[in-house]
Each structure stands twice: as C-alpha cells, then as structure tokens.
Design goal:
The model has no long low-confidence stretch (mean pLDDT 84). A hairpin with a 2-residue loop joins strand 3 and strand 4. This protein has one domain. It has 81 residues and is α+β, with helices and mostly antiparallel strands. The two termini are 18 Å apart. It contains one helix and five strands. The chain has a three-stranded antiparallel sheet with strand order 2-1-5, with no helix packed on it. A two-stranded antiparallel ribbon has the order 3-4.
C-alpha cells in the first residue's frame, strides 16, 4: 500500500500516465510518470503505523543492495504499464 505525500490518500497501486515533453528530432516526446491516483502527487510506502519509520531494522550492505534491487524492479514494473 502507498500513501500520497500531498493529499494523504491511501491506495494499492500508483497511477501511471504519460506527459508530453515536446519534440525530439521531429517526433513527440513523452515521459512516463507515476503518482497518486487521486491528485497525481508524490507517494511513499504505507505500513499503517505512524511510527513504522522508527522500526526499520539495521541492514548489512548485502541486505541493503538486495533491498534496493527489488525496489528498482518494482518501480520498473509500475512504469512499464
């Protein structure tokens, strides 16, 4: 689950859309964006507890690298939609 940093909405999946960015070598250029499905604002993961950030365990370098790799894969899947 995710929580919007702008409007505070809680949602399952962010919205994905394309924004026109002008032209590149005579062709229209678009950028894939993702954000809150209600206001298109920024978002972060939501754990349901206001103090969840204090409960993040310490990670070894290897655990951190694995975590970051998984998060990157998740974002790539979201942006491919």
């Amino acid at each position: 689950m995710f929580i919007c940093e702008d409007c505070g909405a809680i949602f399952e999946e962010p919205d994905v859309w394309e924004e026109y960015r002008g032209e590149c070598h005579g062709s229209p250029a678009y950028e894939k964006m993702c954000g809150c499905p209600y206001c298109r604002g920024g978002f972060s993961e939501y754990c349901g507890d206001d103090e969840c950030e204090d409960e993040i365990p310490e990670m070894t370098d290897e655990e951190y690298e694995e975590f970051i790799s998984k998060e990157i894969l998740k974002l790539k899947k979201i942006l491919k939609r």
